[in-house]
Write a structure and sequence with these properties.
single chain; 228 residues; alpha/beta; Glucose Oxidase, domain 1; two-stranded antiparallel sheet; 14% helix
């Protein structure tokens, strides 16, 4: 009874993950999700055994530095502490949300963050694959904005869009700047129904060895004040 009461009184968890499943939009040319069956009870087996085939970038995921540089660390080196802790959720100004041409510059971030301390920043751009389609473009950080975030002490940048870089970019300067500065990246979050503000983020990447990204179940929890 005591354990159940504790669970009931705990702050509710908000799931900000994009579910991986059939029909999930992936980056054009990437491997879509599929689920096959190694064994089925209907065929006489004692259990059902699923076999999953998918890109590491399908749904909500954490990019590893290996994604942009072959000599950089792969997915098993993603540090757990970067993906757990206080996070600030910010929604882009209405005029920028859903835009395929908007660039998130330093001035926009200065307005959104103000003087709020921030180690983990989650940006709602309005361009998530949770809509059921892959967006033609999205508001993306500028390289200068990435540098500014590093100087502010940000160690994790999350977006609801498929990338922190512009869709047309092949140089991926934001990925490079963040990884080189010791920060990490969460992509394909589901933030449409999240009220901007401070939360606790629980978003551990799966411990996958040798990959350039890892799937994530990302959750938010309201921070409970202990002040009296």
């Amino acid at each position: 009874m005591r354990e159940n009461a504790s669970l009931e009184s705990a702050p509710a968890l908000i799931d900000i993950s994009v579910a991986i499943g059939a029909g999930l939009p992936v980056w054009p040319g990437d491997t879509p999700f599929s689920c096959g069956w190694t064994a089925r009870r209907e065929d006489g087996s004692s259990v059902n055994l699923a076999s999953l085939h998918t890109s590491a970038h399908a749904g909500t995921h954490a990019d590893a530095p290996l994604h942009v540089e072959s000599a950089w660390e792969s997915s098993e080196a993603l540090p757990p502490q970067a993906f757990v802790g206080e996070a600030l959720v910010c929604a882009l100004p209405y005029a920028m949300r859903g835009s395929s041409e908007a660039i998130i510059e330093v001035e926009t971030l200065e307005t959104l963050l103000g003087d709020t301390p921030c180690e983990r920043l989650l940006l709602r751009t309005g361009c998530s694959v949770s809509s059921g389609t892959f967006p033609q473009g999205w508001p993306a950080l500028s390289e200068a904005a990435a540098i500014w975030l590093l100087h502010r002490g940000v160690r994790l940048v999350g977006v609801d869009a498929p990338s922190v870089d512009d869709r047309q970019s092949t140089a991926l300067p934001v990925h490079h700047r963040l990884f080189a500065g010791g920060a990490y990246v969460l992509e394909n979050l589901a933030l449409d129904d999240v009220t901007p503000g401070q939360y606790e983020l629980l978003a551990q990447p799966l411990l996958v060895r040798g990959a350039d990204a890892a799937p994530v179940r990302a959750l938010l929890r309201h921070i409970v004040s202990t002040s009296r």
